[in-house]
Protein backbone atom coordinates (compact mmCIF):
# COMPACT_ATOMS: atom_id res chain seq x y z
CA UNK A 1 0.00 0.00 0.00
CA UNK A 2 1.83 3.03 -1.22
CA UNK A 3 -0.03 6.11 -0.10
CA UNK A 4 -0.68 8.95 -2.53
CA UNK A 5 1.11 11.88 -0.91
CA UNK A 6 2.30 15.37 -1.55
CA UNK A 7 6.05 16.09 -1.43
CA UNK A 8 5.53 17.56 2.03
CA UNK A 9 3.78 14.42 3.24
CA UNK A 10 6.51 12.24 1.70
CA UNK A 11 9.07 14.24 3.65
CA UNK A 12 7.20 13.66 6.93
CA UNK A 13 6.75 9.95 6.23
CA UNK A 14 10.45 9.61 5.45
CA UNK A 15 11.28 11.30 8.75
CA UNK A 16 8.88 8.93 10.51
CA UNK A 17 10.68 5.94 9.01
CA UNK A 18 13.98 7.27 10.30
CA UNK A 19 12.50 7.63 13.78
CA UNK A 20 10.84 4.20 13.71
CA UNK A 21 13.92 2.42 12.36
CA UNK A 22 16.31 4.03 14.81
CA UNK A 23 14.02 3.32 17.74
CA UNK A 24 13.65 -0.33 16.70
CA UNK A 25 17.37 -1.05 16.38
CA UNK A 26 18.71 1.00 19.28
CA UNK A 27 20.52 -1.21 21.76
CA UNK A 28 19.26 -4.27 19.86
CA UNK A 29 22.68 -5.43 18.61
CA UNK A 30 21.09 -6.21 15.25
CA UNK A 31 24.14 -6.39 13.00
CA UNK A 32 27.21 -8.60 13.00
CA UNK A 33 30.13 -7.28 15.02
CA UNK A 34 32.06 -4.68 13.10
CA UNK A 35 29.14 -3.67 10.88
CA UNK A 36 27.87 -0.16 11.45
CA UNK A 37 24.29 0.91 10.83
CA UNK A 38 25.86 3.47 8.47
CA UNK A 39 27.43 0.73 6.33
CA UNK A 40 26.03 0.53 2.78
CA UNK A 41 24.78 -3.04 3.32
CA UNK A 42 22.92 -1.95 6.46
CA UNK A 43 21.41 1.03 4.61
CA UNK A 44 20.26 -1.21 1.75
CA UNK A 45 18.81 -3.66 4.27
CA UNK A 46 16.90 -0.88 6.04
CA UNK A 47 15.50 0.41 2.73
CA UNK A 48 14.41 -3.09 1.67
CA UNK A 49 12.68 -3.81 4.98
CA UNK A 50 10.82 -0.50 4.85
CA UNK A 51 9.80 -1.11 1.21
CA UNK A 52 8.45 -4.53 2.24
CA UNK A 53 6.37 -3.02 5.03
CA UNK A 54 5.02 -0.25 2.80
CA UNK A 55 4.33 -2.55 -0.13
CA UNK A 56 3.14 -5.74 1.53
CA UNK A 57 2.27 -5.22 5.18
CA UNK A 58 0.53 -1.84 5.39
CA UNK A 59 -2.30 -3.06 3.16
CA UNK A 60 -3.48 -5.17 6.12
CA UNK A 61 -4.08 -2.00 8.16
CA UNK A 62 -5.86 0.29 5.72
CA UNK A 63 -9.35 -0.81 6.71
CA UNK A 64 -8.40 -2.23 10.12
CA UNK A 65 -6.22 -5.12 11.20
CA UNK A 66 -7.38 -7.83 13.57
CA UNK A 67 -4.97 -8.99 16.25
CA UNK A 68 -4.10 -12.39 14.78
CA UNK A 69 -3.28 -10.78 11.44
CA UNK A 70 -1.05 -8.34 13.29
CA UNK A 71 0.88 -11.25 14.81
CA UNK A 72 1.18 -12.78 11.34
CA UNK A 73 2.46 -9.45 10.01
CA UNK A 74 5.18 -9.37 12.68
CA UNK A 75 6.14 -12.95 11.86
CA UNK A 76 6.25 -12.29 8.11
CA UNK A 77 8.41 -9.23 8.75
CA UNK A 78 10.86 -11.39 10.72
CA UNK A 79 11.06 -13.96 7.91
CA UNK A 80 11.51 -11.28 5.24
CA UNK A 81 14.09 -9.32 7.25
CA UNK A 82 16.10 -12.46 8.00
CA UNK A 83 16.14 -13.24 4.28
CA UNK A 84 17.05 -9.68 3.29
CA UNK A 85 19.66 -9.40 6.04
CA UNK A 86 21.35 -12.72 5.47
CA UNK A 87 25.04 -12.13 5.93
CA UNK A 88 24.80 -8.87 7.89
CA UNK A 89 22.59 -9.72 10.87
CA UNK A 90 24.03 -10.85 14.19
CA UNK A 91 23.68 -14.41 15.52
CA UNK A 92 20.09 -13.88 16.71
CA UNK A 93 18.96 -12.53 13.34
CA UNK A 94 16.04 -10.15 13.15
CA UNK A 95 14.45 -10.63 16.56
CA UNK A 96 10.76 -10.56 17.40
CA UNK A 97 11.27 -7.57 19.70
CA UNK A 98 12.90 -5.54 16.95
CA UNK A 99 10.22 -6.50 14.41
CA UNK A 100 7.31 -5.63 16.69
CA UNK A 101 8.87 -2.31 17.64
CA UNK A 102 9.41 -1.25 14.01
CA UNK A 103 6.00 -2.39 12.81
CA UNK A 104 4.13 -1.10 15.85
CA UNK A 105 5.82 2.30 15.65
CA UNK A 106 5.19 2.57 11.92
CA UNK A 107 1.49 1.73 12.24
CA UNK A 108 1.16 4.00 15.28
CA UNK A 109 2.55 6.94 13.30
CA UNK A 110 0.37 6.18 10.26
CA UNK A 111 -2.69 5.82 12.51
CA UNK A 112 -1.93 9.12 14.25
CA UNK A 113 -1.65 10.77 10.82
CA UNK A 114 -5.02 9.30 9.80
CA UNK A 115 -3.63 7.08 7.03
CA UNK A 116 -4.76 3.78 8.58
CA UNK A 117 -7.25 2.48 11.13
CA UNK A 118 -6.23 2.07 14.77
CA UNK A 119 -3.76 -0.79 15.23
CA UNK A 120 -4.47 -3.66 17.66
CA UNK A 121 -1.20 -3.19 19.60
CA UNK A 122 1.16 -0.46 20.63
CA UNK A 123 4.95 -0.33 20.41
CA UNK A 124 6.41 -2.43 23.21
CA UNK A 125 9.63 -1.00 24.60
CA UNK A 126 11.27 -0.32 27.96
CA UNK A 127 9.08 2.67 28.76
CA UNK A 128 5.87 0.73 28.09
CA UNK A 129 7.08 -2.48 29.76
CA UNK A 130 8.00 -0.48 32.87
CA UNK A 131 4.32 0.43 33.24
CA UNK A 132 3.42 -3.27 33.49
CA UNK A 133 4.09 -6.17 35.86
CA UNK A 134 6.93 -7.15 33.50
CA UNK A 135 9.14 -4.24 34.65
CA UNK A 136 12.70 -5.54 35.06
CA UNK A 137 11.58 -8.98 33.81
CA UNK A 138 11.30 -8.51 30.04
CA UNK A 139 13.73 -6.66 27.78
CA UNK A 140 12.08 -5.87 24.45
CA UNK A 141 15.39 -6.07 22.55
CA UNK A 142 15.85 -9.65 23.72
CA UNK A 143 12.39 -10.96 22.77
CA UNK A 144 12.98 -13.73 20.22
CA UNK A 145 9.53 -15.29 19.93
CA UNK A 146 5.85 -14.49 20.13
CA UNK A 147 5.04 -15.75 23.65
CA UNK A 148 6.88 -13.15 25.81
CA UNK A 149 5.62 -10.36 23.56
CA UNK A 150 2.10 -11.78 23.71
CA UNK A 151 2.30 -11.88 27.53
CA UNK A 152 3.25 -8.19 27.66
CA UNK A 153 0.48 -7.31 25.19
CA UNK A 154 -2.06 -9.22 27.31
CA UNK A 155 -0.99 -7.20 30.35
CA UNK A 156 -1.25 -3.93 28.37
CA UNK A 157 -4.73 -4.92 27.16
CA UNK A 158 -5.79 -5.45 30.77
CA UNK A 159 -4.40 -2.10 31.89
CA UNK A 160 -6.05 -0.38 28.93
CA UNK A 161 -9.38 -2.12 29.42
CA UNK A 162 -9.47 -1.04 33.07
CA UNK A 163 -9.56 2.55 31.76
CA UNK A 164 -11.94 1.78 28.87
CA UNK A 165 -9.12 2.23 26.36
CA UNK A 166 -7.57 0.20 23.59
CA UNK A 167 -3.85 -0.68 23.85
CA UNK A 168 -3.01 1.98 21.24
CA UNK A 169 -4.98 4.65 23.11
CA UNK A 170 -3.50 3.56 26.45
CA UNK A 171 0.04 3.85 25.10
CA UNK A 172 -0.59 7.36 23.76
CA UNK A 173 -1.61 8.42 27.26
CA UNK A 174 1.20 6.58 29.06
CA UNK A 175 4.19 6.96 26.80
CA UNK A 176 6.53 9.77 27.69
CA UNK A 177 9.97 10.44 26.33
CA UNK A 178 12.71 10.71 28.90
What's a concise summary of this model?
The protein is 56% helix and 0% strand. It has 178 residues and is mainly α. The model has no long low-confidence stretch (mean pLDDT 93).
Q: Can you tell me about this structure?
A:
56% of the residues lie in helices and 0% in strands. The protein is mainly α. It has one domain. The chain is globular, with a radius of gyration of 16 Å.
Describe the secondary-structure layout.
Layout: H1 7-25, H2 40-57, H3 67-84, H4 96-112, H5 126-129, H6 146-161, H7 167-174
Helix pairs in contact: 1-4, 2-3, 3-4, 6-7
Which features characterize this protein?
7 helices
How helical, in percent, are the residues?
55-70%
Largest sheet: none
Number of strands: 0
Structural class: mainly alpha
> On the 0-100 scale, what is the average pLDDT?
93
Radius of gyration: 16 Å
N-end to C-end Cα span: 33 Å
Number of domains: 1
Amino acid sequence: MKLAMTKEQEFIVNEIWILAWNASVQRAKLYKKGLSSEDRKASDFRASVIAYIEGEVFQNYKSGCIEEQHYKNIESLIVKANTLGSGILGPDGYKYGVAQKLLNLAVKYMWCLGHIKEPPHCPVDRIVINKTKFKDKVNWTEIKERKPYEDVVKEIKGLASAKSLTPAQWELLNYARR
